[in-house]
Each structure stands twice: as structure tokens, then as C-alpha cells.
């Protein structure tokens, strides 16, 4: 089986810090190679992989201002689809622009939809559903107008996330600084309980950060920026709970399962995929109001941190994700 894996070019694969789509692409690619699948990864040329790396984009457009996103994205797509006949299947991780090329080749195409943002993108999905096999990353993210080949939850390499059996008294926010992700709600909940809060993540909306986050920072509400590697793992494990008080229907949420892998329970708004990821009262709490979030923080000590890690091992391993995709590829290829 020869697979062409199409990565996004916003960030390197794997990303240095932020880049959830690139991270999932990397994890799946490496797991497929381990299973003996012949994978060619089409990604930025600074990417790191045990697969065969192919590409024309010198650097990620989010890191190099000389890279025009639209220009290089289409160069990236053309480079892959010109070689489509070399592959048994193309796995697109780079959103809907690839669909424009799909009818021009005979090679089957799988698209993992990393979040269906709005009906405005439907014209680049609905007309292609006889040609492209769509994968949802949660049942909550399925759109009623589309047919799906499967729902496949993301997986993570459990061994990369060290278990912290004790955590700390501090609370954690881990994600983009953007109204969707609920940093302001996390700050309000932490203050209501008198607990310290550590915030990690890129500033995606500078106005929101300046308005809702920066004025709240003090010796107990601390913003640390983006973090990777060992510092990321330590931050995820060293908390009483992860506050994920989102204001949108999140399609998945890698930080949720990463925190649970480290033993940290998650307190999340009951929206989007959160009920699929969190078992209420076992690996965290699902809440509907700020008052419920505050009450959940007080109850976080009731959660067995080992149960959080077990849930990730049983349901969200990268091995399970890879096996699910291989089964899908085989089904498509007959």
C-alpha cells in the first residue's frame, strides 16, 4: 500500500510548538511507517519524518513572511497531484483546496476534516463527496449535508506524556488565546475559587489578549506563552485541572486528551466533542454555567488521576488511530 500523505503548510510537520493539524499528520505518518506502510509525506521541506519526504514549499508560511500562503499552497497541491498515479491513495490533511484537484485524478482521496468551521465551506465539500472519502474527527463535528466514510478520533503517543500522580493546587489553561477557547472564562473561574491559573498557548487574537487576558495577569494569573517538549508535558501534568471552558463547538481538542494522559482531569463546557472525550465524574466534569465550573474545580480532587490516563490508553492511543485509518484504506481499496 503506497500512501501520499498531504500535510498543511502553515507549520512544519511536526510543529515546533503550535500546529494541531500538522501534529496529527506527523503522528499518523510515523505510526503507519512503523506498521510497514509505504508513506510519502508531502510537507514543508524543513519537516522531520521517517517516511519519504517530498515537497516544494521551503518553509511554513506562519514562520516565514516570504512564503505567500495562497501561492505556495497551490504549488504544494499541484506538486502532489501531478504524481497521483504513483500512489494507491492520497490522504489529505490540508483542508478543502485539495478537493479542486480530486476529480482530475483516478487515485482515491481521503480527507480528514479537522473541524467543519461553517456552512460557508460546504461548496468545497458537498459536490465532491462522490469522489472524496470524508473522515470526521468526532461525531459532534459531522455535518448533516455530508456522507462520511468514518469517524476516527485523534490519538496520541501515551509514552510521550509522563503521568503525574499528584498534580498541584494550580489550575491550567492550554490553548489558543482567542475568544473561542475561553481564557477569560478560565480566569474568572480561577479567581472565584482563589486558585492560581497558568495559561499556555499562542496569542491568536491580539485584541482579545489585550482586552481580556493581559489586564488580569498578576502573581496568581500567569501567562507563559507557547511551550513544547518537556516543558509542555510538565505543564499538562502539574495542575489540579485543565479548564477548557470553550465558547464554540470544538471538533476535538488535543490538549484535553494530552492533559488526561498526564493524569490531569478536565473541566469543560458541554459543547462539541467534549462529551465524546470526557466521561463526566470519571475523567473530569462537563459544565453548562460559570457556577458549575467553579463547583467542578472544588470537586476536582475527587477524580482518580490514574483513571484519566487509563481512559486515554484505552480510547485515544496513536496505535488505535493508525489501525482505524489502515482499516479505512483497505475498505476503500477493496
TrEMBL record:
Entries under CDD domains matching the protein: GT4_AviGT4-like
Lineage start: Bacteria, Pseudomonadati, Pseudomonadota, Alphaproteobacteria, Sphingomonadales
Domain Glycosyl transferase family: 168-299
Protein name listed in UniProt: Glycosyltransferase involved in cell wall biosynthesis
InterPro entries per UniProt: Glyco_trans_1 (IPR001296), Glyco_trans_4-like_N (IPR028098)
SUPFAM superfamilies: UDP-Glycosyltransferase/glycogen phosphorylase
Organism: Sphingomonas endophytica
Domain Glycosyltransferase subfamily 4-like N-terminal stretches: 24-146
Pfam families, alphabetized: Glyco_transf_4, Glycos_transf_1
Leader sequence residues: none
